[in-house]
Each structure stands twice: as C-alpha cells, then as structure tokens.
Amino acid sequence: MNKSVNLLIVFLVLFTLLAFAAVMLYSFYLSLFGDSQLSERLTYVANTLTGLVGGIVASAFSVELPPAPDPPTMSKYSRKMSVVGNLVMTGKFKGNSAPDRAKGILGNIYAWVYLLLGISAIVLWSLDQSRLNVLDNLATITLGLILVIVKNFLD
Questions:
Q1: DSSP labels for 28-89?
Q2: Residue 46 to residue 40: CA distance in whole angstroms
C-alpha cells in the first residue's frame, strides 16, 4: 500500500473517532439538558459511527499478538493498545512489535473514548435517563461488543 493511501486511512480512522465523539457528546447533552432530538440523518450517521468505531476497537483487540520477547519489554495491555494505535497510524492491524509510545497513546485514546462513551450510554440507558434512540443504540452495541473486547483482551 502506498503512503498516500496510508495517510488517507489514518485520516479517516481519526476523523471517524472525532466525529463519533462529537455526535455522542452532543447526544448526551441533548438527552440530559436539551429539549430537542437529533435529526433523522444525524441519527443514521451516529449509529453508523457507533458500529464502525466499536468494530475497529473490537477488531484490533482480536488480533493475535506475536510472542513477547523474553524478558517482555511491554505489558500485554500496552501491546494490545499498540495494535489499536498501529491501525490508527498505519492503517494496518499488524506491524512492528517493537514498543512505540505514540502508537500506544493513540491506541489508548481510541479505545478509551469508545469504552467511556459506551459505558456512559449503558448507565443512562439502564437508569432510563436516555431520551435519544442513538444513545440506546450505543448502549446495546457496546454491551455486545464489550464481551468480544474483554474476551479478546484477556486472551
């Protein structure tokens, strides 16, 4: 894959996360403090972004890690986060297994943004405080994907 395609993938993956976070934070605001609803089109976009970002996180966590060097230079958690970061930075799930702080930071940001927004939606949904279908969808999609994410994280 050439460099311009990689840059496009990196841009799209980061743009997707930022768009997901913006739409969901706006949805939380409307659900808790607003008196309006999301437009039908924005609801479709939000649902698509929810599945896409969740799928990226779940897929990255399901990538089998190469054997750790002896002695291990990174924890399993750091190695998993580097896989997510590797996808964000290079557009590939597999890459160099050497420690890379930038990939780990980006991987943490990507995974934690999804998980924190998803868990927040689950709390609102379970307390029956969500007024928007998009947050209900985020809650149920996160519930489904969190099983895959946790299982693959522990493997």
A1: HHHHHT-S----HHHHHHHHHHHHHHHHHHHHHHHSPPPPPPSS-SS-HHHHHHHHHHHHHH
A2: 10
pLDDT at 48: 93
Please report where in the chains the tokens 């279908």 appear, as a residue: 133
End-to-end CA distance of the chain: 30
Identify the sign of the CA torsion 116, 15, 81, 108: negative
Q: Is 126 exposed, middle or buried (0-12, 13-18, 19+ CB in 10 A)?
A: exposed
Could you give the CA distance from residue 85 to residue 98 in angstroms, rounded to a whole number?
13
Q: Give dist(CA 23, CA 118) in Å, integer.
A: 13
Q: Which residue has the tokens 């939000």?
A: 46
56-110 pLDDT, tens digit per residue, is 888 777 776 667 666 667 777 777 788 788 877 776 766 555 557 778 888 889 8
d(CA 48, CA 52): 6
Closest among 31, 80, 24 to 52, alpha carbons compared: 24
C-alpha span between 114 and 4 (Å, rounded)? 27
